[in-house]
Specification:
This protein has 236 residues and is an alpha/beta fold. The chain has helices at 3-8, 18-31, 53-65, 83-86, 104-108, 114-117, 138-142, 145-154, 173-178, 195-207; strands spanning 41-46, 71-75, 118-120, 126-129, 160-164, 183-189, 212-221, 227-233.
C-alpha cells in the first residue's frame, strides 16, 4: 500500500483522531438511520468526480469491519474503478491488473463465480470485489436483474455491503443501483461542488425513489486547518 493511500485510510490514523471519530459517527448514523434493523446494502455516490467518494466508501467499510462483522466493498465504478488502488491491492492476472483484476463484470456476465474474484484485504473482516474489465454498457450491467439477484445472494455471506458507484449526474448507473439497495449516501466536496449539482443529484435519486440516508460533506476546513467531514441526515 502506497504512502498516499495510507494517509487516506482511517486505519493509518490514531484511533482517536478527528477523522476516525467522524467516520465512527457516520457509522452510527447509518446504523440508526431506519427503524427495525439497519441498512445492510449501502450505495455511495456523488454529484461529480473528485468529491472523495471512493475514499469515503473504503473508510466507512473499515470502521464497520472494526465492529468484527463481515463487510464487502463492491466497486461498481466500471468506467473508472479505484477501490483496489485505495486499498493497495495489486493484481497479477494478465492485462487486467490496472483495473484491479477480475471482478464484478466477470461475475455478472457469468465468466467467474463470486468466490473466485472476491478477495480479502489487509483489514480484518473486510473484503473487496473489484470492478473487473470494462463492459460495453456498464449501466445495463449494474442495472440488470442479475445484479439484483447477486446482491441478494451476497447478503447471506456478508453483514454489510458497501457499493462505490459513478457520479449520479453524469451517468445512470447510480440511479439504477439506488433502486436495489437499502440506502444511499451522497458524498459532497464542500469546497468544489456547487449547490446546483447537489440539488440535481438529490433530485435524480429522489425521482428513482431512492432512500437517501444522508449527505456527507468532506473537505470541510476547521479552524485547525485540518480537513474533516460532516454528515447530515437526509431530512436536513
Amino acid at each position: 500500500m502506497g504512502s498516499g493511500n495510507e494517509l487516506a485510510l482511517v486505519c493509518s490514523h490514531h484511533p482517536y483522531a478527528v477523522v476516525t471519530e467522524t467516520y465512527r459517527t457516520l457509522r452510527a448514523a447509518i446504523l440508526l438511520s431506519r427503524a427495525g434493523e439497519p441498512p445492510k446494502t449501502i450505495l455511495f455516490t456523488s454529484g461529480i468526480h473528485g468529491e472523495g467518494k471512493t475514499v469515503t466508501v473504503i473508510n466507512t467499510a473499515i470502521v464497520f469491519a472494526q465492529m468484527g462483522v463481515r463487510v464487502l466493498v463492491i466497486d461498481a465504478e466500471l468506467r473508472r474503478p479505484d477501490c483496489h488502488r485505495v486499498l493497495g491491492i495489486e493484481d497479477r492476472v494478465g492485462l487486467t491488473a490496472y483495473r484491479g483484476g477480475l471482478g464484478l463484470t466477470e461475475v455478472l456476465t457469468g465468466q467467474r463465480a463470486p468466490e473466485e474474484v472476491i478477495r480479502p484485504t489487509a483489514i480484518q473482516h473486510l473484503f473487496l470485489l473489484s470492478a473487473g474489465s470494462s463492459p460495453p454498457d456498464p449501466a445495463e450491467l449494474v442495472g440488470s436483474r442479475k445484479m439484483q439477484e447477486f446482491l441478494a445472494s451476497l447478503q447471506e455471506h456478508y453483514d454489510y455491503i458497501l457499493i462505490d458507484s459513478p457520479p449520479v449526474t453524469l451517468v445512470s448507473d447510480a440511479v439504477l443501483l439506488s433502486t436495489i439497495v437499502d440506502g444511499v449516501v451522497l458524498v459532497v466536496n464542500s469546497q468544489k461542488t456547487s449547490k446546483y449539482v447537489v440539488k440535481e443529484a438529490r433530485a435524480r435519486l429522489s425521482y428513482a425513489r431512492a432512500k437517501i440516508l444522508g449527505v456527507l460533506l468532506n473537505r470541510v476546513k476547521r479552524q485547525s486547518g485540518d480537513y474533516a467531514y460532516n454528515y447530515r441526515p437526509s431530512h436536513l
